[in-house]
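Progress against Task 2.4 (sequence-to-structure conversion) is shown through the following example record, which the project officer requested during the mid-term review.
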Amino acid sequence: MNPYVDSIVKSFDERSTPFSELDVLSAINATSAIVSATEESAPFCLVAEGLAFHLVENCADREGLWGKYYGPAAIGEDKNGDRIDIPPISAITDDVISYWEERAGSASHPILRARYADLVWEFSSSVRNSASRFRMAQIVVDANLEIALRQLHRVPPIIPIRLRRALDLAISTNDRIRVERVRLAVLSQLNEPFSREWGNLYNELLRNPRSQLANTERDAIIVGLRAQLDDICRDPASSITQVSMLTLWLAEVYRRTNQPLNTKIVLDILLNSILDRQSAFPALTLLAHLENLFEVLRRFGFTNEARNLIEKIEEVSMKSRDEMVGFRLEFPLPDVAIHELIQEIVGDSLELALRKLACFFAEDFTEAQKQLRELTQVAPLSYQIRNSHVNERGMATASVLPIEQDNEGHIVQHMGTCMKLCVPILRSTIVSMRAKFSPSVEQLLEVLYQSPLYQENRKPIIRRGLEAYWDDEDFVVSIHLFIPQLEHAIRELAKQMNITTYKEGRRGGFQLRNLDELLRLVELEEALGKRTTVYLRTLLSDQRGWNLRNEISHGIPACNGFTVDVADRLFHALLLLSLVRFDIEQTDNP
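Structure tokens generated for the chain above:
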């Protein structure tokens, strides 16, 4: 070995105080900086050492990585958009593995031995095309046991991860003696504060029959953690997050073992812990805990208890609304470009202007997808967290999950935001068109009724809505009249396409399919184009968007919710559906 590497190895081999793999990597990096200043290239042994401690453990379940227990420390893209792994898996060669194998046998400290041997075990089969030696797995198990029992690692949360790795390797190599040693080591750690990592380890012991866990040992784990839950709840300084994690782990175990009473007891403990601490929480934090508990109760089948929680959630929602702080964001609009755009839309003909307006302001979901891809590169964290939509009373009406789980939710949410940003432009376009053509309500009706979707027996209703919107600026009336006619027009399209608009009712008989169901039908999507159906869902029926049909029908908005912005969008939707002709094939452009 190189003298520099000898110095690093010796310093950690002889260390009596806890340290971590990151400490070793920092020492290697510092030495590499010194070497690079004096030598043209780093010696092989220094490169192999840096690679060993640069890799990240516990990556087997992370999507898109190498499918190994170890993975890259970072992932990026080159100028062509191709993925770059740091370090790359190609750096792990036969020579590197041979070096690690030698170090696994010569290193003294368990942290070093565990890392070298584990890397050899994990990568030998793919690099050397040969099975790893069982001796490497044995070294990993023994070293990790020593790390756990002697508390050698500087980062305590790593201990259950190391014990889980030791258990997995002992089981996979069918090493019954080492399985027993790991199991006994885990049982000796039951007083350690519960965490998600400890929960995963206990689950492996309980669920895997090859762990050789006796019934008495199983009971000891459950009783020990139940006692720990009681201790946490008695401690006013304890975290509700810790109470929640331990409660949910116990509830899952009780459910698996068919103990509904104990499941209910621990969930009641969680509820009482939240309520006992409610004065210490901001309303928004308390609301998040209650909403999470509501979902938990439903998941475990306690529907009545979940329903009883709604009143408390509504009460806290009102308080949380008062805590929310508004913010104002001002940005200049390109006046000349917008003026030119409006003039292009308005043109020289009222009918053509209305058609252009209908097409231009229908948000395009393909463009929204493109913009989202760009935004996730600029601000990735914003799209990795769950966010909720709340109504006027502060109640959450919908959630948008991280983008990998809910791409459609993010598209609808983004389209809804773009529609709000376009409000002043849509309004200015309508004002300019009105100033140029001075159209009457009858002229507007004539344009709408070029589509067969608007029936003659509905004309008085639509006329009254247009009068309220166009002549009287009575948006309360116009909005209440426009929405049912839009829904009826979509139902009429379905009927003309021989699509049933009814479904079996819950109490016998039949009931109408709701609007969102209709707009999700493949047949309607093919007829109107996906751009139109996604836009209409965002505007009318998707809770992650504007959701106007449901908000208005259920009486959610107060008077200040019936604005010209909303009326303009509904007028636009009427114009959009007026483009439908039964004798013309529809495309993705309305």
